[in-house]
Amino acid sequence: MIAVFQHRETGEVKLSGDCRWGPGAEYDLVVPYTVYYPYRFPEPFAAYLLTPDLAEGERVWLDDVIKDIVAVYGNQEWHPRLEACEAIWINGDFVIDFDSSKAPRLIG
Q1: Is the pLDDT confidence value at 108 over 70?
Q2: Which one-letter DSSP state was computed for residue 2?
Q3: Do residues 63 and 39 lie in contact, with contact meaning Cβ atoms separated by under 8 Å?
Q4: Phi then psi for 79, rounded to 5 degrees?
Q5: Cα(74)–Cα(88) distance, rounded to whole angstroms?
Q6: How far is it, in rounded angstroms, from Cα 6 to Cα 28?
Q7: Could you state, in order of their start, the residue ranges of all structural domains in the chain?
Q8: Can you tell me the distance from the alpha carbon of 35 to that of 18, in angstroms, rounded to the nearest whole number?
Q9: Are 83 and 64 in contact (CB under 8 A)?
């Protein structure tokens, strides 16, 4: 979540990612708080490099998870993605060993 504020006299721009905070009365809200997707990937595709002897049911560590899975539910729409985790190789695909519905929920 982010909002943009601009100083009325100097034109200085300040950003706020917390709807409980604003820079002060001398700033106008020019872009209201809005939710955005904070991740940018330089290419529109991804793949895992697999060892040829990867066995069915083998447990592996994925250092860079391709799927967009929520790792933590935070306040004000902050939901960082799962970066790394264990997975199991089943039927030619990785089954991620992480249940996003049980991801931690932060309060604050």
Answers
A1: no
A2: E
A3: no
A4: -135, 80
A5: 28
A6: 5
A7: 1-36, 41-108
A8: 11
A9: yes
- In whole angstroms, what is the distance from residue 70 CA to residue 32 CA? 25
Q: What phi and psi values does residue 100 have, to the nearest 5 degrees? A: -60, -25
HEC profile of 60-85 = EEECCCCCCCECCECCCCCCCECCCE
Spatial distance between the Cα atoms of 54 and 101, rounded to a whole number of angstroms: 29
Question: Which string of b and e fits 44-76 if b means at least 16 CB within 10 Å?
Answer: eeeeeeeeeeeeeeeeeebeebeeebebebbee
pTM for this model (two decimals): 0.61
pLDDT recorded at residue 76: 67
11-36 pLDDT, tens digit each:
999 999 888 888 989 999 999 988 87
